[in-house]
Amino acid sequence: MVIPKRSIPRYTGGFAKRRGRRRVQLGSGKRSSATPLASAAFPLMLLYQEGLLRLFDRDVHFFSLGLLRIVLFALAAGLAVFLLLDLIPHRKTARILGGVLVGAWTVFTCAEYCCKSFFKIYFGFGYMQGMAGQVVGDFGGTMAEVVLARIPFLLLSLVPLAVYLWRCPVIFQEQGQRGKVRGMLAVLMVVLQLGGAFLSRTSEEKNFYTYDFSVNSAIPHFGLVTTLRLELSYAVTGMPQVPLEALLPEEPELTPSPNATPSGSAAGPTGDNVLDIDFEGLAAGESDETIRAMHQYFAAKHPTNQNEYTGYFQGKNLILITAEAFCPYVIDENLTPTLYRLSHKGFVFENYYQPDWTQSTTGGEFAVMTGLIPTWVGGSELSFRASAKDEMPIALGWQFSKLGYRTLAYHDNTYTYYGRNETHPNLGYEYHGIGNGLELKSNLWPCSDLEMMEATVDGYIQDYVKNGTPFHTYYMTVSGHCNYDWAGNAMSRKNQETIQKLYPNASEPVQAYLACNLELEYAMEYLVKQLEAAGIADDTVIALTSDHYPYALVEGDKDYYNELAGTNDSEQDTSRYRNTFILWSGCMDEPVVVDTPCSSIDIVPTLSNLFGLEYDSRLYSGRDIFATNYQADQYSSNMPLVVFANKGYGSSWITAAGTYEASTKTFTPRDGVTVDGDYVGKVNRLVNAKYIYAKLVIERDYYSLVWPKHE
Prior knowledge:
Helices cover 46% and strands 10% of the residues. The chain is of the alpha/beta class. It has 2 domains: 33-237, no CATH class; 313-623, Alkaline Phosphatase, subunit A (3-Layer(aba) Sandwich), CATH 3.40.720.10.
């Protein structure tokens, strides 16, 4: 039988046709079956970055409710990004945009990590933009060291970008997700976002999500992506209003106590340190509810009293110094004899602290210069920078200038850094820095504090000696600035041989830290010698403290500060921030020991009282350290109170009654002191109020409402 040739099936031909039909289908306009699993890529990459940042944050307990909020927000944001990119019909464009977003977010995450690990603070996006040029310009020489020390994080942060570059054709296939899949993903995104928002607005940290938002406080609780969203949205809409119930004053009357007495009761001037401000009248005529509540609060606060030290330094000159990264362990009778003399022959504050205000140098400087707690205005603007637009009559510059003093301010670094060219004149000073009238002999980093003194001291001393013009001079030093090594710190290298001979077994960071601070010793030695040579040491007061403790000695898991201090604490402990406040005059014959708990926000009101200035003690965050109208075992708004920054677990504090450690939620009373059951709760509310009012004072330009404008 002959079979016709055309009826014989040809296997290869049939296969070719089927294969050809597949090619037609793939090339047709019909939708391919893009896998829904591809939608998980962006949520997981974002969650990975959030988890990595949280894991490397030493101040955060990784497994807490904040982690759940971060998971919900990260997954929702990742889905939102994927859905938007998936809508782009040109797949190459979608893939390129996806890569740009993943790369940009990687860079942003790394920048935040470097800020947190080096400066101990998360910076806002807007703040980063404003400071980037200054940081690169002034600290460019140390940037390589900063980056190299953080290589493990930086390498791990590149994992999502590497995965994306490898799998982007799978994430964004030639055809996007089906409409039904997109709909389900959109619903899931909304559910996740609403779940995160619900947990955020109902948790103990809800204030950080709304009216008390700041980048540094929000990231540990809500994550980086949500913090950026809130920062950008609040920049457009403004910060949510503070609830009025948070502004209500609480001021119980003190009662006689059998087991505690006021801190000192020696005879002295009577009355309170107040001005004639009619807070009640201002409140009655105020239509703005927040401003009215502020008037009511300040009216209800108890002022501090005049005391035996009121006017103690009246008529004398004042030199106030904020020393970069200064700490008590620099002071040694043999190594730093001038600092030792000043710290042991004047007022000796045995219970003084310089808290970490989570704002690096500028926060500590603001506290020293204004007596206000440094806060973040609008969520991402430093209160010091924001204050440049306000009336600041409480500052010592204005107080002394009204009395005919010459008020000068100096800083041996770029004069515009942190906006000091705006903030310091606004505090009443004639300000000079490098590039604005201050000329030093050498061009080093960090610059020499000794050279700053040599360039400035003679001018105001001679003006006083020859013309009788009293002076108040302010200095912000820089020689103690990190990094603490021989390669990147000119002041450390300058004094390297001296320190290595004295401390041969110390680590390089500790040696370098002590070495660069020798320059501060030499500066103070020069200053005191010039005052004594001119015969005006008895007419002059020197006040010196730090901007912050030398946090750069903490590098990852290596805590060189414990080596320096001979302690075993951490940055979560209040003991880490114990510091020194030098207050000395040549007229003092004997030291005066003070054990009252105090901190940097107490300096301005204390100096105001000592110099007999007219001021209102109710308008500061701090208080006169020598005030006596309080009971150690009772709550009051004018009691001694050292406030520490909230680092994600609440604010620690110290009073005359004891110490509260927020990281462990424990209160330890001082020996012999007993407090009532609600004492801790009352003080926690007072601490919260102090932060709120410190921010509102700057945010609302409050002093312009209660003081006339400067002339």
